[in-house]
């Protein structure tokens, strides 16, 4: 039997390199290693989809999540989700993808996955079935006069702590939340990729429109026209990784 030709997509370089090594050791041919979902969509558009037998796709990545990417390529090669978050609905993975692997990936579980791919046991779902598996938008309450309304997380650029109050920011606009610490926001949305760029600032990296140098060792990130946030020197390297194209 010819070796499986696989594509590895993960925004973490070490995780991507380790999985590619394990796949090679299992007899697979690596056709490419990509950093995020946008790069995967571009790769699929530019290449022949029949040139790869399976895609090993990370779930939580800057920009498009693995689930969002899968919904956009229902006619693409079989997808194996690779995730560090066991809290995801495993059954949904099994329905939407060929298989799933929990990080760190071990050889015996990977071999079972590869055997499953070789035997082509899984039916691909229709576009409507895949869209139905996407989680509803995350929401949270914000204070308005004497009541509250719900805001979707996807429109928020960052969160700001001020005098033990957390404000949800949409560019220059700020909305008061129930939270009193940024750690509460992180606990509420553990899979969104939130990044603490200052003690009082929590950034959603996917909302960054551009970056520029600030003082030595720091950068400023633009989240809206005329709205820039300064990243601490300690977090600048991590921020650059999270917001790269």
UniProtKB/TrEMBL annotation:
SMART domains: LytTR (SM00850), REC (SM00448). Residues 5-118 form the Response regulatory domain. The modification 4-aspartylphosphate is found at residue 58. Keywords: DNA-binding, Phosphoprotein. It holds the Pfam family Response_reg. This is DNA-binding response regulator. The keyword DNA-binding applies. PANTHER family: REGULATOR OF RPOS, RESPONSE REGULATOR RECEIVER. The lineage of its organism: Bacteria, Pseudomonadati, Acidobacteriota, Holophagae, Holophagales. SUPFAM superfamilies: CheY-like. It comes from the Bacteria. One of its GO terms (molecular function) is DNA binding. InterPro entries: CheY-like_superfamily, LytTR_DNA-bd_dom, Sig_transdc_resp-reg_receiver, WalR-like.
């Amino acid at each position: 039997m010819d070796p499986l030709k696989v594509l590895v997509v993960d925004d973490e370089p070490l995780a991507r390199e380790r999985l590619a090594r394990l796949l090679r050791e299992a007899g697979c041919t690596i056709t490419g290693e990509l950093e995020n979902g946008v790069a995967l969509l571009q790769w699929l558009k530019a290449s022949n989809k029949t040139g790869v037998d399976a895609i090993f796709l990370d779930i939580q990545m800057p920009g498009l999540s693995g689930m969002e990417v899968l919904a956009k390529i229902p006619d693409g090669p079989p997808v194996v989700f690779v995730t560090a978050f066991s809290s995801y609905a495993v059954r949904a993975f099994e329905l939407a993808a060929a298989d799933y692997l929990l990080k760190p990936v071990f050889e015996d579980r990977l071999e079972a996955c590869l055997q499953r791919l070789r035997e082509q046991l899984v039916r691909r779902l229709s576009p409507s079935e895949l869209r139905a598996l996407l989680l509803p938008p995350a929401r949270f309450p914000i204070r308005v006069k004497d009541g509250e309304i719900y805001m979707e997380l996807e429109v928020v650029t960052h969160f700001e702590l001020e005098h033990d109050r957390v404000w949800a920011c949409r560019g220059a606009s700020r909305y008061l939340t129930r939270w009193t610490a940024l750690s509460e926001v992180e606990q509420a949305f553990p899979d969104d990729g939130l990044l603490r760029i200052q003690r009082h600032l929590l950034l959603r990296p996917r909302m960054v429109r551009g970056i520029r140098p600030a003082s030595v060792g720091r950068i400023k990130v633009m989240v809206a026209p005329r709205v820039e946030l300064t990243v601490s020197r300690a977090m600048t390297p991590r921020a650059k990784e999270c917001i790269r194209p």
